[in-house]
Specification:
Strand order of the largest sheet: 4-1-6
Distance between the termini: 18 Å
Radius of gyration: 13 Å
Order of helices and strands: EEEEEE
Helix content: under 10%
Strand content: 35-45%
Largest sheet: 3 strands, antiparallel
Shape: elongated
Structural class: mainly beta
Number of helices: 0
Length: 71
């Protein structure tokens, strides 16, 4: 689950070996919670959990809440 609030929007992104494998819908609402579930390719060596600010990052707040990897 991710949690966020933003004036102009932000997006949660999961990258595997530098390739985007998930991008959330644009999140704006205060205290929005978005569940994310992604199947990773077996050969992944590097995993990135990112937050991208869309226009500016003024008052953007975002959290990856309890991210987990399960095998």
């Amino acid at each position: 689950i991710v949690s966020a609030s933003s004036n102009d929007g932000l997006r949660f992104v999961v990258k595997a070996d530098g390739i985007t494998i998930y991008a959330s819908p644009i999140v704006k609402a205060k205290n929005s919670r978005v569940p994310i579930r992604v199947d990773l390719p077996k050969s992944v060596r590097q995993l990135e959990l990112k937050v991208e600010s869309l226009n500016n990052n003024l008052n953007d707040h975002a959290y990856w809440v309890d991210p987990r990897l399960t095998f």
